[in-house]
Amino acid sequence: MDENIKKDSIEKATSPAAKAEEAEDNSALDSFLSREQEPTKPVKTGKNRKPILIVIIALVVVAALVVTLILVRRRTYQKSEGVADPAEITLDVGKDGVHEASVKLDENGNILQNGVGSLLTYVPADIKQIDVENEDGSFTVTSHTPEGEATVYTLVGFEGYTLQEGIAGEVASHVSALEFTKIITASGNLSDYGLDKPRATVNVSFNDDTTAVIRVGNNAAGEDTGAYVAFGSSDAVYLVATENVEPFLYSVNSFISLDVTDKMEDSENAEFSSLTISGTRYDEPITLEPNTDKAIDAAYIVTSPRRMYANATESYDIAGNIRGLYAEEVVCVNPSDNQLSSYGLSEPYASVKATYPDTEITLHASAANDDGLVYIYNPDKNVVYTIQLAAVSWAKTGLDLLMPENPLIVNKAYVSEISFSAGDTSFDLDVTSSTETVTDDDGNEQEVTTTTATYDGKELTEQNFSIFFQNLNAIKNQGSPDGEKGSKVMSVTYSYSSDRSADTLTVYTSDATNYILELNGAAVGTTSKAYIDSLIEGANGLIKGENITSL
Fold first, then answer.
1. In what order do the strands lie in the sheet containing 350-355?
2. Do both 290 and 418 map to the same domain?
3. pTM score of the predicted model
4. Does the chain have fewer CB atoms within 10 Å around its N or its C terminus?
């Protein structure tokens, strides 16, 4: 009989008529709350006392109706928004100071009231120590909160390492206030939930001298989402949101800073004085130095295995891939020799050593895997990381990539003489430059350099000389020489007004399709035959006083 009544009640509650009635109640509430108030007139005492009493009673009835409608509506909203009822559990601390939780049961041994709840209700500042053991090992975090200051966390045994900001605080946050979304069972077989061999066991000590034990089992399957958790010594199993237990699965590596190298504190320390690249990838070490000579427009010079000005893009990438490196992840802290070998770092694929005004940095890198990641080791930090190969261009560079786009880019203001020779054409140009400070219409001062070139005592037009000079600087390096050097095609020698020694760029024929380039007797690459032929033609026109064109 009771079952029939219950069934009948459910059907009525879900019937169209019931839904219409609920909508009508909501409409009535909305209408009542939004009604316009009519002004009331003063009421005289005496004979009108009875009508006043009737009005008061009516208002009480209406108020009760409003409260009823609000409660009905609130209950409806809670159900529609999925707000769960709180579970009925009892929290207690045993004689040994361990936090325990027990699920309330009815007379039949069933869970009295299932729902959401909290197993611990502390704040991170209440924590003294956290000990975690999981599948990746174990770690211990201690905390201390100075009065009026933020909590300070220490990863025990790794005090000399820089920690990532927020990781220890994340663990503490989820340990101090552990919430569950559902009671799975009040007393179950823990092996069914992976709690006989937990993925993680957390022991936390609080400043009030109590402790708590949290065990993390398998992730839930099916409709439930989360992970199974046991608390204290009880066999009750709770469902906890996955993100709330993930910090308990961290390893020591998760705490260590991802900064492979530190950023510079002062811009004066940004530039290295020397840099050497070596490793099994390279036949010979490659050394780079900053170019400090203003007569040549180049940032860096390759000083070995042969001397040449470095490609601007490649050298800037190398220089920018040493300080302030940030890794993908930490894979090993305080690695052993065997571990370094397993990561391909005992005999590094590539190494870089850079000397700065404030420090010296050495880094080792493995060869890249299929995902473009390399292992990188900083001996000073004693940590192995992974990082994208693209972020460490020194681990994939080479002389071909360091060859300058232009073999020699000369600053015209520092030139005193240009000697040109090509076949039957040979001439010397005397070059002078003067710099003066001028003020523009806005009152801004700037330095303006004027350069004059003369040939055989006759001044060349500024436009023609500028075009010729630009064409010389624009000679392109096409790559490494791929043929035998033949006869000389052209040479140009720059003498300088500074203490710099003269530079000679020479072009030779080759059995290949391009001409071979040498700078001061050392091969620096190849260049286009067509370009050099056009350049020589323009040089002939220059000394004849003809207008020449930019190449």
1. 308-309, 300-304, 286-290, 274-278, 350-355, 360-365, 373-378, 383-388, 329-333
2. no
3. 0.75
4. N
